[in-house]
Amino acid sequence: MELPQRVKLVDVGPRDGLQNEKQPVPASVKIELVHRLQAAGLKEVEVTSYVSPKWVPQMADNHDVMAGITRQAGVQYSVLTPNLQGFTAAVADRPDEIVVFGSASEAFSQKNINCSIAESIARFAPVVEAALAAGIRVRGAMSCTVGCPYEGEIAPQQVAYLAGLMKGIGVQRVDVADTIGVGTPRKVQRAIEATLQHYGIDAVSGHFHDTYGQALSNTLAALELGVWNFQSSVAGLGGCPYAKGATGNVATEDVVYMLHGMGIETGIDLDLLIDAGAFISSFLGRKPNSRAATALLTKRAG
Ligand code: HMG
Ligand code: MG
User: Fold this and answer.
1) Which of 21, 115, 126, 243 gives a 20 to 30 Å CA spacing to 55?
2) How far is the CA of 69 from the centre of ligand 2 (A)?
3) How far away, in angstroms, is 114 Cα from ligand 2 center?
4) Distance CA 256, CA 280 (A)
């Protein structure tokens, strides 16, 4: 079986990770985290979101964070925009890519963005149009592609339906997200195959939360289908405020350790990445939620 020889990782820790933290994280700490991630070789970072501060207070400093980053050539900075109001605020901060976020589950769509799947697409359409007209790339996050905290198991047809709608409004690439981390390898492959009905393999990424410890296996299952774009969070930060009990994304350190061990290039310096994870974990007063980081930090200390 031919696996991709190179993988591109988007670190979503500053957004997907920190959005779920109860304690305020100052913009200066978020900025330093982004700087450390780019120094470690990340070429894409999901920095923040332009959502309602009443819904997600931790992202209320979106402008300060975007304005405070010293940008590095060749690095793409993406932000979430659920509607035109969010897009208008975001565009002033010059993101390279905006992310609209829909769900394969009706119930999750309602809880997360307060509208149905069809309504969400109608809201995204002018956002996508405006972004493309402004030369900003557009990604679509597809939540709950395997399971939903409210509806249970999600059929691949629901994923195909959402992917088709995203394609129809001009979204350029999509994330197959296992928002609550319940997926297992074959189910994740079915969700990816459903997405491939509408998007080419280069336009599909895997976004796996690790709630049940399946995220690395799911990553390998996606690699087997040829997927070479993935999202992960440094130190395994995060979760979604509207998916109770769901833990963070798979830790970037664990994915990088696995890929390098398989001879797959990422362009990332694992030592610097571990430093970035240790930095944010120490601010949050806990250990990195990454097995590889824990092992390598223990080895360093010894
Ligand atoms: P709504 O209440 O339906 O919106 O929220 P509305 O248009 O009726 O407006 C109500 C109020 O919100 C108004 O303020 C608006 O100004 C304000 P008020 O007059 O009451 O003071 N508002 C906004 N403020 C700032 N930025 C905006 C904005 N839009 C309206 N863009 C909305 C709809 C989508 C805004 C709301 O439901 C929301 O913010 N939800 C948060 C969703 C979120 O951030 N979820 C977490 C990210 S998704 C995720 O983590 C999953 C992912 O990682 C993939 C995966 O793992 O599945 C991507
Ligand atoms: Mg997520």
Assistant:
1) 126
2) 22
3) 17
4) 18
Q: Which atom of ligand 1 is nearest to the CA of 239?
A: 50
pLDDT tens for each residue of 201-245: 999 999 999 999 999 999 999 999 999 999 999 999 986 667 777
pLDDT tens digits for 76-124? 999 999 999 999 999 999 999 999 999 999 999 999 999 999 999 999 9
Name which of 101, 56, 110 is nearest 82 in CA terms: 101
Q: Is residue 26 part of a domain?
A: yes
Catalytic positions: 240
Please indicate, yes or no, if residue 44 is contained in any of the structural domains.
yes
CATH value at residue 124: 3.20.20.70
Counting every residue, how long is the chain? 302
pLDDT for position 39: 98
Cβ-based neighbours of 226, under 8 Å, separated by 6 or more: 4, 201
Overall domain count for the chain? 1
Q: Which atom of ligand 1 is nearest to the CA of 241?
A: 46
Question: Rounded mean pLDDT of 127-144?
Answer: 98
- The ligand 1 site (C-beta within 6 Å) comprises 16, 19, 49-52, 55-56, 82-83, 85-86, 101, 112-114, 141, 143, 177, 179, 207, 240-242
Nearest atom within ligand 1 for CA of residue 249: 56
Structural domain of 17: 8-301
The predicted-structure confidence for 249-299, as pLDDT tens digits, reads as follows 999 999 999 999 999 999 999 999 999 999 999 999 999 999 999 999 999
Query: In the block, which residue shows the tokens 């405070």?
Result: 68
Q: How far apart are CA 253 and CA 270, in angstroms?
A: 7
